[in-house]
Write a structure and sequence with these properties.
Number of helices: 15
CATH superfamily of the largest domain: Bira Bifunctional Protein, Domain 2
Structural class: alpha+beta
CATH class of the largest domain: Alpha Beta
Shape: elongated
Distance between the termini: 56 Å
Length: about 425
Amino acid sequence: MAEKISAVKGMNDILPPESARWEWLEGIVREQMARHAYRNIRTPILEHTALFVRGIGEVTDIVEKEMYSFEDRLNGEHLTLRPENTASVVRAVTEHSFLYDGPKRLWYTGPMFRHERPQRGRYRQFHQIGAEALGFAGPDVDAELILLAASLWKALGLTDVRLEINSLGQPAERAAHRAELIAHFEQHADKLDEDGKRRLHSNPLRILDTKNPAMKEVVEAAPKLLDFLGEASLAHFDGLRAILDANGIAYTINPRLVRGLDYYNLSVFEFVTDRLGAQGTVCAGGRYDDLIAQIGGKPAPAVGWAMGVERVLALLEEQGAAFPAPAADVFAVVPDAAAMPVVLRTLTQLRAQGVQVQMHAAGPDGQGSFKSQFKRADASGARFALIFGADELARGEVTVKSLRDGTGAQIARPLDDVAAWAPSLQSGASQD
């Protein structure tokens, strides 16, 4: 036998019935995005490495440690599997002059890639759903995006999440804070870990995001960026808070919330949970007003968020959510393979009417006994069995047998008028 080939570690297959959970979540997302007038955008998985170096930041963990980058052996281009999608969306909008006729609200879904140590909620191929509003400058759209996320949690039945917000101000304000931050950490250099020492002069703001408990005290004592904000930045932050307050959205101001990407300014936010341990951030984002210009476009403000699909599904599972079970409406029981021409004609008509149909097909040992087919029908989760027996076919009928209401009731239906009775087989319908 040939050696078995397995999936790359940290890149997972999603099989039924688990895939039905993903489809259910994606369906709710599509509905909510449409209600908020966000339109779908799809970008390539592979981009030029320079996009992420310039957009995310050269001294971020993502660029320094986590990207899957390589040189194209055909033309020498430096390419990277996307580690996040905001930079790709901005690149697409810029390349196609998509903001020429006004601001845009966009959303996306798809796989991202980071070379990390695989663990629950953190995989090398992971999936995100994101929403981006480009060309809008006010805190009202920051708030709209947070309200969009909150509406998703409600539609999904997700309850164990809390909102944390902060403001990163503008570049000049961050520069003043940065100088004070470096001075503070230099005075306590003996308490910094290797990551902290490495970031001290290149990206000291990221030290605030450390997960090292030994550094908690020195980080808590560090200067707070909120104290360096000017009038305009504070007004933006206050505007965001006023809208959240008016809508009854609870939040905590977290002055240590800085996010892991360099392109953020002003509002940043995270929806977090305590149920998933270290991987407790399920949705995060903020404003990135300078990114479009950094990538070569005409300067324009923007704000957005990304949600981790695996983490949201894991949190729903932790909460004991009742996920939908994938099942056909009907299972076709076919005692004699000779009846297949009539069976498939009928099933095709049912499917055209919107009925979900699973057919028993003949195996290498023949069609299978009546008993074994009914076992399969019951195991399939279908609400009804369609019995194409010889007596039924001789009368030009099929027998519809109830499988889920405990009665086992049966009713004959004519084969020459499928459209008349097909609706009674669909989920939520009842038999006459």
